[in-house]
UniProtKB/TrEMBL annotation:
<dbReference type="Pfam" id="PF01031">
    <property type="entry name" value="Dynamin_M"/>
</dbReference>
<dbReference type="InterPro" id="IPR045063">
    <property type="entry name" value="Dynamin_N"/>
</dbReference>
<dbReference type="InterPro" id="IPR000375">
    <property type="entry name" value="Dynamin_stalk"/>
</dbReference>
<dbReference type="InterPro" id="IPR027417">
    <property type="entry name" value="P-loop_NTPase"/>
</dbReference>
<dbReference type="Pfam" id="PF00350">
    <property type="entry name" value="Dynamin_N"/>
</dbReference>
<dbReference type="InterPro" id="IPR030381">
    <property type="entry name" value="G_DYNAMIN_dom"/>
</dbReference>
<dbReference type="InterPro" id="IPR003130">
    <property type="entry name" value="GED"/>
</dbReference>
<keyword id="KW-0505">Motor protein</keyword>
<dbReference type="InterPro" id="IPR022812">
    <property type="entry name" value="Dynamin"/>
</dbReference>
<protein>
    <submittedName>
        <fullName>Uncharacterized protein</fullName>
    </submittedName>
</protein>
<keyword id="KW-0547">Nucleotide-binding</keyword>
<dbReference type="GO" id="GO:0005737">
    <property type="term" value="C:cytoplasm"/>
</dbReference>
<feature type="domain" description="Dynamin-type G">
    <location>
        <begin position="80"/>
        <end position="373"/>
    </location>
</feature>
<dbReference type="Pfam" id="PF02212">
    <property type="entry name" value="GED"/>
</dbReference>
<dbReference type="InterPro" id="IPR020850">
    <property type="entry name" value="GED_dom"/>
</dbReference>
<keyword id="KW-0342">GTP-binding</keyword>
<dbReference type="InterPro" id="IPR001401">
    <property type="entry name" value="Dynamin_GTPase"/>
</dbReference>
């Protein structure tokens, strides 16, 4: 269902646009009026249908249309570049295919249910050679059978529809056909693209009809809108069809040709609702009213009332009925609008297939002229973007020395990037990615850790002031004088405090290393982006190294904590200064203890307001407890500072070593080790890179071809403008 497909019908004849046969001849449908594009204006549509046919209008439009068709054929739309397109929409059986048939003069599949199951791009090209040449080319599976068909067809070539050469292009092959077999051929191609049955597909079919007298027009016929699935159709047929239609009519570059049956009430048409959704003002919608022969009553009023906002106007037509030939159908139509008591009242400028054709040709010229400059700009932009992307891709490595130098270069540039983000704080490679501004993030993390340590040790001083100290003093009391401070008590309290915070530093270093791992992996991945086969080795190297460094840091921090627990030392004079300040409150404390009339809620430096009343019952020991608390408080500041400082130094030192010393060796070891696959690994281009390269090359080729196509017509426009 999603296979690539195009179906194309061609009619080869010598170009002789200056000599288009007269309207009365068998197949000419459209009198073409000379008109420079810039002057196109709907007033001109009022010209009589039999106006003399002159070709210079065609000469100017044709190259533009050809260019657009070439771009369409090149599939420039795959690059997201929209092309000006006339899109035919309409409810099921509103007469879409009949209108296209009338414009093209060929038989399209018609029948019950949805016949049009894939978008059918129909290119009509006028062709002035009176001698038709018919062929149907087919490449692929069904070639033989169809070629036999074709021989038959060519033998009958002089039959009724002399004058057309048709071929269908789809699924990468070309099928020659003729007007007699075109209907079968389209059905067959549709089945191949969308599967047989009633499924539908987005993949378009291109039908090129080069034929004497057809208007130069390219239109897309879409599946008709149906609310209720008929037998064999999927349940979500409405959603599927509506998705295809929306895809085609949504772009501003699309002209919506809304086919409405005269027999229905226009505002109830599903196709009207759908086109109004994407073209609210109706400025790019043209209505074709079919089956006027079936419902002539009130048609004029319906069209004049314009209840449904049709910006480009209405054209009423009568299509071929039953076995009529095209000529007969056109005669019948002309006759109908001439003689019918109701239909003859409708202004001649809005009736008949020739008027429709002429109107479409003009609308098409206008939209193409309008869109072309933007298309040129988009092609150029995409082309240069793709070329620079391709240039950024690595060379395909072919020898070991080449692979070695590529590896060294990846490692070198990765290490340099890491130095920048982790050590030097230079972020020009990641200006907007805050996560990669590592020096700032690391210092933030460290500050936060310091704050948390500080906070977690500000314990509940206020309740039971000094009671913990008293308990410990009592437990460590020995046989000796009471006014010696037992060192054991001090160490015990210190140890207890260190224990309380001992989890946090280890947690902190783990967090920091996790962060560093993410950064290192991101940098390595960025630098080895073009060699996905390197990714696993470099990632593993980074993980191994960082795991090692993380363990080392954790051990180091654990050791520092252990030291703080058992040794109390500092040479920092700050200790004595702080202790001195804290002890200044001691006199106040003693005073309160000894004076029963004073309030027992006192303010002590460094602890704020504390209740001390409960200490009156510990006369022998509260003095020592106070002293020991102040020493601990003064010393604790030193301990925390020392802890944060040494973690900072250790981390910084470790990261430096990681980047400057270990990284290169470890990556090389990994790559050369048992899992790495060696340098040879680098010589195999990874499929994803190969695919990307191919995609870019293809797209560049397509865009270059497209550029050439448009350059030619733009030159012509420039020459014509002179
Ligand atoms: P689609 O489903 O929109 O493609 O509609 P078709 O083109 O298949 O037409 C549906 C039916 O309406 C066919 O039987 C046509 O012959 C018939 N039909 C289309 N246009 C006219 C018309 O102008 N007059 C009459 N009487 N029948 C028409
Ligand atoms: Mg149809």
């Amino acid at each position: 269902m999603s296979e690539k497909a195009t179906l194309l019908v061609v009619n080869k004849m010598a170009k002789q646009n200056s000599n288009i046969p007269e309207t009365s001849s068998s197949s000419a449908l459209v009198p073409i009026h000379v008109q420079p594009i810039s002057m196109i204006d709907d007033e001109e549509l009022a010209i009589p249908v039999e106006a003399p046919i002159v070709s210079s209008y065609n000469d100017r439009i044709r190259p533009l249309l050809d260019a657009i068709d070439k771009l369409r054929h090149l599939k420039v739309m795959q690059e997201g570049i929209q092309l000006p397109t006339i899109v035919v929409v309409g409810d099921q059986s509103s007469g879409k295919s009949s209108v296209l048939e009338s414009l093209a003069g060929i038989n399209l599949p018609r029948g019950q249910g949805i016949c049009t199951r894939v978008p059918l791009i129909m290119r009509l090209q006028h062709h002035s050679d009176p001698l038709p040449e018919l062929h149907l080319e087919f490449l692929g599976r069904t070639v033989q059978t169809d070629e036999t068909h074709i021989s038959d067809a060519i033998n009958q070539a002089t039959d009724e529809i002399a004058g057309s050469e048709l071929h269908l292009e789809f699924l990468g092959r070309t099928v020659q056909t003729d007007a007699t077999h075109i209907s079968d051929a389209i059905n067959q191609a549709t089945d191949e693209i969308a599967g047989s049955g009633k499924g539908i597909s987005h993949t378009p079919l291109t039908l090129v009809v080069k034929k004497n007298g057809v208007p130069d027009l390219t239109m897309v016929d879409l599946p008709g809108i149906t609310r209720v699935p008929v037998h064999g159709q999927p349940d979500d047929i409405y959603e599927q069809i509506s998705a295809i239609i929306t895809e085609y009519i949504k772009p501003e570059e699309s002209i919506i040709l809304n086919v409405l049956s005269a027999t229905v009430d226009f505002p109830t048409c599903e196709s009207i609702r759908m086109s109004q959704r994407v073209d609210k003002t109706g400025l790019r919608t043209l209505a074709v009213v079919t089956k006027v022969d079936k419902a002539p009553e009130g048609l004029l009023d319906k069209v004049m009332a314009d209840d449904v906002n049709i910006g480009l106007g209405y054209v009423c037509v009568r299509n071929r009925i039953g076995d009529e030939s095209y000529d007969e159908a056109r005669k019948e139509e002309a006759n109908l609008f001439e003689t019918h008591p109701l239909l003859s009242k409708i202004d001649k400028s809005i009736v008949g297939i020739p008027v429709l054709a002429q109107k479409l040709v003009r609308i098409q010229a206008t939209i193409i002229a309008k869109c072309l400059p933007e298309i040129v700009r988009k092609i150029n932009d995409k082309l240069s973007a793709n070329i620079s992307e391709l240039n950024r891709m690595p060379h395909n490595l072919t020898s070991v020395p080449e692979a070695m130098s590529a590896l060294m270069q990846i490692i070198g540039s990765s290490v340099e990037s890491l130095r920048k983000v982790l050590l030097r704080g230079e972020f020009e490679e990641y200006p907007d990615d805050k996560h990669m501004h590592c020096t700032a993030r690391l210092s933030e993390m460290l500050n936060q850790c310091a704050r948390e340590l500080q906070k977690s040790s500000e314990d509940n001083y206020k309740d039971n002031f000094l009671m913990e100290e008293i308990r410990i003093l009592e437990e460590t009391r020995g046989i000796g004088l009471p006014n010696f401070l037992p060192r054991a008590a001090f160490l015990m309290i210190l140890q207890k405090k260190v224990n309380e915070i001992s989890g946090a530093p280890v947690e902190f270093v783990c967090k920091v290393w996790e962060y560093i791992e993410k950064v290192v992996v991101a940098v390595l991945m960025r630098h080895s982006e073009h060699y996905p086969q390197l990714e696993s080795s470099t990632r593993r190297a980074a993980q191994i190294l960082i795991a090692k460094r993380k363990d080392m840091s954790a051990d180091r921090v654990a050791e520092i904590i252990e030291m703080e627990k058992i040794i109390d030392y500092t040479c920092d004079p700050e200790y004595l200064t702080v202790w001195g300040k804290l002890m200044a409150s001691k006199n106040l404390f003693l005073d309160v203890m000894n004076n029963y009339s004073r309030s027992t809620l006192i303010t002590i430096d460094g602890f704020g307001e504390v209740e001390v009343g409960h200490l009156k019952s510990f006369p022998n020991i509260r003095d020592q407890a106070f002293d020991i608390k102040m020493r601990i408080a003064a010393y604790w500041k030193i301990v925390l500072k020392r802890l944060v400082d040494s973690m900072a130094l250790n981390l910084q030192f470790s990261v430096k070593n990681l980047v400057n010393k270990d990284m290169e060796t470890e990556i090389v070891n990994e790559l050369m080790g048992p899992h790495g696959g060696g340098l040879e690994r680098l010589l195999e281009e990874s499929p994803s890179v190969a695919i990307k390269r191919e995609r870019l090359n293809k797209s560049i080729k397509l865009l270059k071809d497209s550029k050439e196509v448009v350059a030619k017509v733009m030159d012509r426009i420039a020459i014509n403008a002179d």
